[in-house]
Amino acid sequence: MARGDGSGSAAEEAVRKLRSASGENPGHIFVSYDSRLDPAEISDCLSRSFPDTSFIAASSYSGVLSDQSGSFDTDRSVAMLALYDGEGSFGSACGYFGDVSSDAEIEAIIEQAITRAGRNGEAPDAVWISASAGDENRVIGVIESMMGQSVQICGGTPGTLNGLGADPESRSASAPGGMVCGTRFLAVTVFFPTCRITTCCRSAFAPSNFVGRITRNSGNVVYEINYRPAAEQYADWLRSLGYVGRQERLSPAALQRQSVLHPIGFMSGSFGAQAFYKAAICDRVGTDGSMTLLADIPSFEAVTVMSDASKDAVAGCFSCDRSSMLYYRDVRYYGSMYAVCASYGRNITGAEADRLAESVRSIQSRGAYAGLFSDGEQGRVGDSRNQNGYLMVCGMHFYDAI
């Protein structure tokens, strides 16, 4: 990880650290960078420093995550995680797509990544994606149609309309570094079984004891919960839990703010006896008491209020690595890539960030990690399907047998 007043100096410092860690050129680099930095300078630095190395990058809200940072860095910063492998275990590609009636352009980008790994005819078993906001579910659907529903998908939506990615074969005068910018793009890295990977993805919010049912809705607009106006029921839950005063009147704007820390949650799957909840922020409160959520919820779905997770629950998500990674003596852990909901990043500051970073370092002391605060997270929660969610943490972990 590196910091700097300008994106060029921060990227160059990160490159120097990569070079000092290994004398070899990486086979692939993941990059997370503060959304206030200039992606063109970062792309140029990587292209000059590693002309034979592929990379994909995503812009991050609230700085970046890195094992080389004293905290979750909220300054102008860049984090890089390098992979070294000569077996064709991964391939990368990026590009634009536009026609909403056809998925051919998305398929072509993914096929290009597979071809660059030299593994034509083989199906990857894991994929990391950085897709434009609003297109994540479509991309997930295309990947599953090509590779099957068992493929592991992880990723984070960039914080700005920038997607970076490059392969040595893709660089040209017209597209230096392979950078793509615009409203619809995809940067993807595919991994084959010779690169050992496991993933974790979960909501960092815990459900409260209050449970209701959506009794009237249209898509993501919820009109009634328990046959009451949705906003009225939600406000009563907040008062009963002590999140607001019992006599406090909540304006639509206040309800929206509360939903960032106390979102509406609904069960999205289970693993054994444990239920996994997906959380949804309220985007708008109507004059009729309706709540427009940033997620589609089926009618009569059981819902609840989720508890504030800005302090300890994010570290809890990182701690699930211990079970998902199977830390046995015959496994060596190398490092991880993370995508963390931007809402957490906005609520983690000062001493709180230092405590959280220390907790993560104690878990991740055996390997490097890097990550971004994203605009949406992609992963598999519990035993459910791959999905694009919000208010989640997802991770891709690299290991090998000893």
Question: How would you describe what is shown here?
Answer:
The protein is α+β, with helices and mostly antiparallel strands and 402 residues long. 26% of the residues lie in helices and 36% in strands. The chain is globular. It has ten helices and 24 strands. It has two domains: 2-201 and 312-401, no CATH class; 212-305, no CATH class. A hairpin with a 5-residue loop joins β17 and β18 (291-293). The strands form three sheets. Strands 1, 2, 3, 4, 8, 9, 11, 20, 21 and 24 form a ten-stranded mixed β-sheet that branches. Strands 12, 13, 14, 15, 16, 17, 18 and 19 form an eight-stranded antiparallel β-sheet that branches. A six-stranded mixed β-sheet has the order 5-10-6-7-22-23, covered by helices on one side. The two termini are 28 Å apart.
Counted by DSSP, the helix tally is 10
Helix content: 25-40%
- Our estimate of the beta-strand percent is 35-45%
Spatial separation of the terminal alpha carbons: 28 Å
Average pLDDT metric:
76
What is the 3D form? globular
Residue runs with pLDDT of under 50 for 5 or more positions? 170-177, 320-329
Total strands: the figure is 24
Largest sheet: 10 strands, mixed
Structural class, by secondary structure, is alpha+beta
Number of domains: 2
Main attributes?
402 residues, alpha+beta, 2 domains, ten-stranded mixed sheet, eight-stranded antiparallel sheet, 10 helices, 24 strands, 26% helix, 36% strand
Quick summary:
The chain is built from ten helices and 24 strands. With 402 residues, it is α+β, with helices and mostly antiparallel strands.
